[in-house]
Amino acid sequence: MEGQNKKMIIRNCLVIRVLILFQIFSFFLLIIFPQIIQSEEEKSFTRQRSGQVIFTPHERSDSEPQQVHISLVGKDHMRVSWVTEDKNARSVVEYGTKQGGEYEAKAKGYHTSYNYFMYQSGKIHHVVIGPLKPNTNYFYRCGGLGPEFSFKTPPLNFPIEFVVVGDLGQTEWTTSTLKHVNSKDYDVFLLPGDLSYSDTQQPLWDSFGRLVEPYASRRPWMTTEGNHEIEILPVTEPTGFKAYNARWPNPHKESGSNSNLYYSFELAGTHIVMLGSYADFDDESEQYTWLVDDLAKVDRKKTPWVVVLLHAPWYNTNEAHQGEGESMRKSMEGLLYEARVDLVFAGHVHAYERFTRVYNNNEDPCGPMYVTIGDGGNREGLALSYKKPVSPLSLYREASFGHGRLRIVNETHAHWSWHRNNDNDAFVADGVWIQSLSSFKECWNTQHHNHVHHEEL
C-alpha cells in the first residue's frame, strides 16, 4: 500500500512538472510566435498574419495602481477597478469634479485575488463610486497613491455614442485600433468577448490591463465573455472564467442576473443586453429565464432602443466558426424577435460583416440588424475566406481590422459606421442609418405575419 502511494505521489509530481513546462513553453510561444498555437479548427481557414503580441510591462511601484479601468453600475454609479502588487494597498477611491487632488468624495470597496496553477494574482480592487452627474468630467485617484485619472460620465439623454470592438487582444493591430478609437470622442466602449487572449497565460491578463488602461480608465468599458476567457485546465483549473470574473466584474446583480457572464444595463433611452455564449442558454437555463424577464421589463416608450451583444455570431457567411452560434440562435432568437431588438453585435469571427434585418434565416423588417465585429486586433489574424455566392442577407463583409461606432441620435434614428484601421487614419468603410423598431408601427401589429423558412446562409 505504501509503495502504491509513493508511485501515485511520483506520478502526480511528474504531471505537475509537465504542466509547468507546458505553461512556460506555451507562454513564450504566444509572445514570440503568436500564430503557432492554433486549434485544428483555426487551421482550417486562411488568416492574414496579425503581428506580434505586445507585452506591456509594469513600470510603477508595487503600491501604485495599475490596470485601472471603469465600468457602469446602475444609472449613476461607476465601478473603478485596479491591481496592486502591494497586498496592504487600500481599496479606496477619492474623486470629484476638480482636477489636481481636491477631491469632494471618497468611497471604499473590496479586494480579491486568485490563484491559477502556478500564478498568484496581485490584489484586485473594486470600488463603486457615486452618485455621479451625467455628462460630467470627474477626476479620481486609486488607493491614495499614484497618478490622477479622469473620466466622463455618459449623457442622460440622446445623442449617445457607443464604440463596439470585439476580439481585441494585444498586438500591433490592437494599438492601432485603440489609437483610432481614441481619435474621436465617444461615451461607452462595448466589447463582445475575447479580451486579453491570455489563454491560461495569466501574465498576459496583467499586460492587457496595462495596455488598455489609458483608454479604459477614461470611458466605461462594458464586456461580455468570449471563448478565450474560459481558460479551463485539466485537473488544476476545472472551472472556467476565473481570471475574467475576478478582473472584469459586471453589474449583473443590478439587472437580476445570477452570473457575471450575462447581464443588462440602460443608458440614455437604450437598453443593452450582454448575453453569454458560453453559459447555458437552452429554454430551461437560468440565462434563458433571465432574458425573458429582462426583455419583458423594457418600456419601449421610455427606452426606444434595445441592443444585444454576444460572442459567437448567429449569422455568419465567413468560413471561420461556421455554425458555432446556431444552437444559441435556435434557442433565443425568438425572444429577441418578439421583443423587437434593434441590433445584435457579435465577435468571434475575425472580420467585419453587416447583415440586413433578419429573423430565422430570412430578411424580416421587424428583426434585428446583425453585425459581426470580431476584428479588434487579435493575435490569430484575420479570417479571409467567405462563403460563395454572397448571401442576399449579407450587405457588407470585409476581413480587415477596425472598430465600429453606434451613434444613437434620437428616439427614432441612429447611425452605424465601421472604421477600417488598415489605413493611417481610421477610414469609414461602411455606414448606414437605422430606424428604431419601436417607431415601426407595423412591427407591433399583432397581425404581423412571420415568414418562417429554414433556408441556410
UniProtKB/TrEMBL annotation:
<dbReference type="InterPro" id="IPR008963">
    <property type="entry name" value="Purple_acid_Pase-like_N"/>
</dbReference>
<feature type="transmembrane region" description="Helical">
    <location>
        <begin position="14"/>
        <end position="37"/>
    </location>
</feature>
<dbReference type="Pfam" id="PF00149">
    <property type="entry name" value="Metallophos"/>
</dbReference>
<dbReference type="InterPro" id="IPR025733">
    <property type="entry name" value="PAPs_C"/>
</dbReference>
<keyword id="KW-0812">Transmembrane</keyword>
<keyword id="KW-0325">Glycoprotein</keyword>
<dbReference type="InterPro" id="IPR015914">
    <property type="entry name" value="PAPs_N"/>
</dbReference>
<protein>
    <recommendedName>
        <fullName>Purple acid phosphatase</fullName>
        <ecNumber>3.1.3.2</ecNumber>
    </recommendedName>
</protein>
<keyword id="KW-0472">Membrane</keyword>
<comment type="similarity">
    <text>Belongs to the metallophosphoesterase superfamily. Purple acid phosphatase family.</text>
</comment>
<keyword id="KW-0732">Signal</keyword>
<dbReference type="Pfam" id="PF14008">
    <property type="entry name" value="Metallophos_C"/>
</dbReference>
<feature type="domain" description="Purple acid phosphatase N-terminal">
    <location>
        <begin position="65"/>
        <end position="153"/>
    </location>
</feature>
<dbReference type="InterPro" id="IPR029052">
    <property type="entry name" value="Metallo-depent_PP-like"/>
</dbReference>
<keyword id="KW-0378">Hydrolase</keyword>
<keyword id="KW-0862">Zinc</keyword>
<dbReference type="InterPro" id="IPR004843">
    <property type="entry name" value="Calcineurin-like_PHP"/>
</dbReference>
<keyword id="KW-1133">Transmembrane helix</keyword>
<dbReference type="Pfam" id="PF16656">
    <property type="entry name" value="Pur_ac_phosph_N"/>
</dbReference>
<dbReference type="InterPro" id="IPR003961">
    <property type="entry name" value="FN3_dom"/>
</dbReference>
<feature type="domain" description="Purple acid phosphatase C-terminal">
    <location>
        <begin position="367"/>
        <end position="424"/>
    </location>
</feature>
<dbReference type="InterPro" id="IPR039331">
    <property type="entry name" value="PAPs-like"/>
</dbReference>
<dbReference type="InterPro" id="IPR041792">
    <property type="entry name" value="MPP_PAP"/>
</dbReference>
<feature type="domain" description="Calcineurin-like phosphoesterase">
    <location>
        <begin position="162"/>
        <end position="352"/>
    </location>
</feature>
